């Protein structure tokens, strides 16, 4: 079976959280999360990755639905990547005594360990994890993993078939576009697998200044693979393994986790929304970053606006 590599090319800067103040990460501010009342309450979100640090102070008292598909390994994360991605989606909220970093802290947590602590797994594990998430009726499924795609290479029929099934069921799959490029020397790679599937939402990464992440892939494959959105993906603070418990990383894995969290906010705002409509709302609400469409897709993901029933107007607060 082919291998899927989840480990991002990251700049492993470490933040231990000991000097954090009561504030929001830059990503929460720029996507509007810092000003919204939505928390993803009641929305089932599945993160398929290397598992979760179950002893983390921001997760050890929370209800977590989980299953490991990695042979001879529990769902507990010994890698860190899965914990970091899950932290972006579900992590600390505005009541935290540390830096607030979670997009949808009110969402229901579903963790599928589809990659072992080594960060590598058979495609079969990922497909099994997707099937489990669909069985659990998760409205949003986050995949911060992938394989490099060569120019002219088509998407995977098996992943596309499952993604179409997910949409029909009301579940939106969101995946990282990949970090195989070297933009500083104009060496670009196409959107990675499985984000290149037409029925999967592909997410690229930008930094705090609105520039593309230097390793982010691009839409230019003649055989398909389209960038849909971008999200914060550089110097992203989130949960990690002990003893640090917190760390900042770079990559499209972080960006796709952001979009998964924001999607939960949209799903909360529009109860009963279908997956296709949810995707359309995410795309139509995105902020134009004045970058090529091949890079940013529709733009930077944004939270839903809230209808003020008394005034008949819209607000983000």
Model description:
The protein is an alpha/beta fold. It has one domain: Rossmann fold, CATH 3.40.50. The chain has seven helices and 13 strands. A seven-stranded parallel sheet has the order 3-4-2-6-7-8-9, with helices on both faces. Helix 2 (81-90) runs parallel beside helix 5 (252-269), helix 3 packs parallel to helix 4 (157-169) and helix 5 (252-269) crosses helix 6. It is globular, with a radius of gyration of 18 Å. Residues 5-21 and 309-317 have low confidence and may be disordered.
Task: Provide a compact summary of the structure.
By secondary structure, the protein is α/β, with parallel strands linked by helices. The protein has helices at residues 26-30, 81-90, 123-135, 157-169, 252-269, 275-284, 293-296; strands at 3-5, 44-49, 64-68, 108-113, 120-122, 140-143, 172-176, 201-206, 229-232, 236-239, 246-249, 306-308, 313-315.
């Amino acid at each position: 079976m082919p291998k899927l590599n989840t480990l991002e090319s990251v700049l492993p800067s470490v933040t231990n959280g000991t000097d954090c103040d009561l504030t929001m990460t830059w990503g929460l501010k720029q996507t509007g999360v810092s000003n919204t009342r939505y928390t993803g309450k009641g929305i089932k979100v599945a993160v398929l990755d290397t598992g979760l640090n179950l002893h983390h102070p921001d997760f050890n008292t929370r209800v977590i639905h989980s299953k490991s598909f990695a042979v001879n390994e529990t769902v507990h994360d010994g890698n860190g990547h899965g914990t970091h991605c899950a932290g972006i989606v579900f992590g600390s909220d505005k009541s935290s005594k540390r830096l607030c970093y979670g997009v949808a802290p009110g969402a229901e947590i579903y963790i599928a360990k589809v990659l072992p602590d080594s960060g590598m797994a058979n495609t079969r594990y990922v497909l099994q994890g997707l099937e489990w998430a669909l069985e659990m009726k998760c409205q949003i499924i986050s995949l911060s993993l992938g394989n490099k795609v060569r120019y002219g290479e088509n998407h995977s029929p098996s992943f596309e078939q499952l993604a179409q099934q997910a949409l029909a069921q009301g579940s939106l799959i969101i995946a990282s576009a990949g970090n195989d490029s070297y933009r500083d020397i104009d060496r670009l790679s196409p959107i990675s697998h499985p984000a290149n599937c037409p029925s999967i939402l592909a997410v690229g990464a930008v930094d705090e200044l609105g520039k593309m992440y230097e390793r982010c892939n691009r839409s230019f494959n003649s055989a398909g693979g389209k960038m849909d959105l971008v999200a914060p993906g550089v110097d992203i603070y989130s949960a990690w393994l002990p003893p640090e418990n917190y760390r900042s990383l770079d990559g499209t894995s972080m960006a796709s986790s952001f979009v998964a969290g924001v999607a939960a906010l949209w799903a909360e705002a529009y109860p009963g929304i279908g997956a296709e409509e949810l995707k359309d709302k995410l795309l139509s609400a995105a902020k134009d970053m004045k970058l090529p469409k091949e890079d940013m897709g529709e733009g930077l993901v944004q939270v839903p606006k809230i209808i003020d029933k008394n005034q008949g107007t819209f607000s983000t607060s």
